[in-house]
Specification:
mainly beta, Immunoglobulin-like, 3 domains, five-stranded mixed beta sheet, four-stranded mixed beta sheet, 10% helix, 38% strand, binds copper (II) ion, oxidoreductase activity, metal-binding, Cu-oxidase_fam, Multicopper oxidase, copper ion binding
Length: 347
């Protein structure tokens, strides 16, 4: 085990988050050198063998169900500079946020067919992968980062080869996509997989790439079901000092912290609104929305629901209350470090 003094103090004093290549990482400690750490990880045998062949695997494609569609995506893992608090203000407390808020984030970025060109700017979360029950999701993934990363889905149906998870010596090629390489994931959205699910990196450096922004949503809609008028997607997570190298940590929604920087959600009275929330760190969070209420899974009317790590929640209601509202995590320490936003309803 090779710890420099700063890393050792960080690991000893801080909140433990993971052990990578034998090094303990503290979430509030210094930023680890992931490239250096990952260089010490042995390339698993099945990955070594596949690297000599065409790495974009000929799909062992599950056929879409009758009437189903093959939904193909082209996604690149990439890095870009990212500002956590672009306005430098917290509109909730009407207060200035001082100090540096920029770091190098990691992103799943959607491209046009055959990795032609980016479809838009980088985003946190990555693109929403949309399907209906009976469809097959085909995700062509290229890793432009300098360490092995993956895409691991929740909720949908897949074989172990399509798991996108590092499993030591048992790792399949999709669980260790090396720098510059591609892999084709094929996931089945059969009946019973409907819902909104997270996807995220599950490679050998998991969860640090996820902390840097490698996460997104899959939305499998039930075929034929009426669509909401508005879908909102929110990820509750933290960007820690070990993630960013910044002097302090932030409690974030979609990579941004503090009201006015986090997504400002919008809807109109009369619209059917669906809000999808997941949590992606070591904490429990709650989703609280002012001026509104909905039925939870047990049928009880609530306005605040708890999310554990990687839980996903869909809140649905018909909008009936115009005005400027807050949505936020009700863990006060999270709220006051940035985990809140505006929800603006027009009459
Ligand atoms: Cu929280």
């Amino acid at each position: 085990m090779n710890l420099d003094r700063r890393a050792f103090l960080g690991a000893g004093a801080g909140a433990f988050v993971c052990t990578l290549a034998g090094q303990q990482i503290a979430s509030d400690g210094p930023e680890p050198d992931l490239e250096k750490l990952s260089a010490g990880i042995e390339v698993p045998p099945k990955v070594r063998a596949s690297a000599r062949q065409n790495p974009l695997t000929p799909a062992q494609t599950p056929t879409p169900a009758p009437g189903g569609t093959r939904r193909e995506y082209w996604i690149v893992a990439t890095k870009a500079r990212w500002n956590i608090v672009p306005t430098k203000r917290d509109e909730m407390m009407n207060k200035k946020i001082t100090g540096s808020t920029k770091f190098t984030g990691w992103f799943y970025r959607e491209y046009t067919e055959n990795f032609g060109a980016p479809k838009g700017p980088v985003s946190m979360p990555g693109p929403v992968l949309e399907a209906e029950t009976g469809d097959t999701l085909v995700v062509n993934f290229r890793n432009d980062l300098k360490i092995p990363v993956t895409m691991h889905p929740h909720g949908v149906q897949y074989t172990p080869e399509m798991d996108g998870a590092y499993k030591g010596q048992f790792t399949d090629p999709g669980g260790f996509v090396q720098p510059g390489k591609t892999f084709q994931y094929v996931w089945d959205c059969k009946e019973g997989t409907e819902g909104v699910w997270p996807y995220h990196d599950h490679g050998p450096m998991d969860p640090m790439p996820l902390y840097k922004g490698l996460f997104g949503f899959i939305n499998v809609r039930k075929k034929g079901a009426p669509r909401p008028d508005v879908d909102h997607y929110l990820v509750f997570h933290q960007i820690t000092t070990a993630t960013s190298g910044l002097a302090r940590g932030f409690q974030c929604i979609n990579g941004r912290a503090y009201t006015g920087n986090t997504p400002t959600l919008r809807a109109k009275v009369g619209q059917r609104v669906a809000q999808h929330i997941t949590a992606m760190d070591v904490n429990f969070h709650t989703y609280h929305l002012h001026g509104h209420r909905w039925k939870n899974a047990a049928g009880k009317v609530v306005d605040n629901e708890t999310l554990g790590p990687a839980d996903s929640l869909t809140v649905e209601f018909t909008e009936d209350n115009p005005g400027r509202w807050f949505y936020h995590c009700h863990v006060f320490s999270h709220l006051h470090e940035g985990m809140s936003g505006w929800y603006i309803v027009e009459p």
